[in-house]
């Protein structure tokens, strides 16, 4: 797992509560890449390429990102962004909330033209949900509030919250022109303190019996529940010791066993769209046939 803890800050719960109240009041709208999730998934841009509060799409931007109107309404989070991190490499900052939802396995930055190694994403949970987890390739973790993580979004990753309790977080993207040291993102060098032990989730062994049971879903799959089965399969790796990308391989096999060529094609297409290649502004429908 390349994702790791960069440092930690102590959150001021009183000041944070006011900001969380504002974030909760912002209406939920359709997200960019909404096809990646189900349940409650809300992203609110604080800094982005345009300064527009409804612009939720990450893109390369010359210079620094621009504060949106939402940044002015969350003074504590604005202070964290401006005092903990260096602003000249900041390309986007947003809050993300996930409740009773899963974000399917995917890779980020595949729609951009640059080398993925120049992008650097940090992630910090603001309020804890014990049933919320992230995965990064072969590892599942539970992030604790205040931990500042490097989230290796260029590799296959996913997220889930099995509960209705908010898992509000702060996600900040940086980009560099060439080689860099990860500590360069911090305006406050005392925050950079790598090496903390993460809370890694112990998962159950995955057996041939489990695989056979999954493939038996070919008996119930229909075009009308194709999307539901993808989200179901995307949850398996949070409990069992398998790679998150296996969800797509199972979906393809299930579609083949169901002898529906259109479902086979769609299963292969969503695997490519989520993990291999897509263009900026591309969308994918899991329900149109």
TrEMBL record:
SUPFAM superfamilies: Clavaminate synthase-like
InterPro entries, per database record: Asp/Arg/Pro-Hydrxlase (IPR007803), IPNS-like_sf (IPR027443), Pro_3_hydrox_C (IPR008035), Pro_3_hydrox_C_sf (IPR037037)
Domain Aspartyl/asparaginy/proline hydroxylase positions: 29-174
Residues annotated as domain L-proline 3-hydroxylase C-terminal: 184-280
A Pfam family: Asp_Arg_Hydrox
GO molecular function, one term: 2-oxoglutarate-dependent dioxygenase activity
Protein name per UniProt: L-proline cis-3-hydroxylase
Naturally occurring in which organism (per UniProt): Amycolatopsis alba DSM 44262
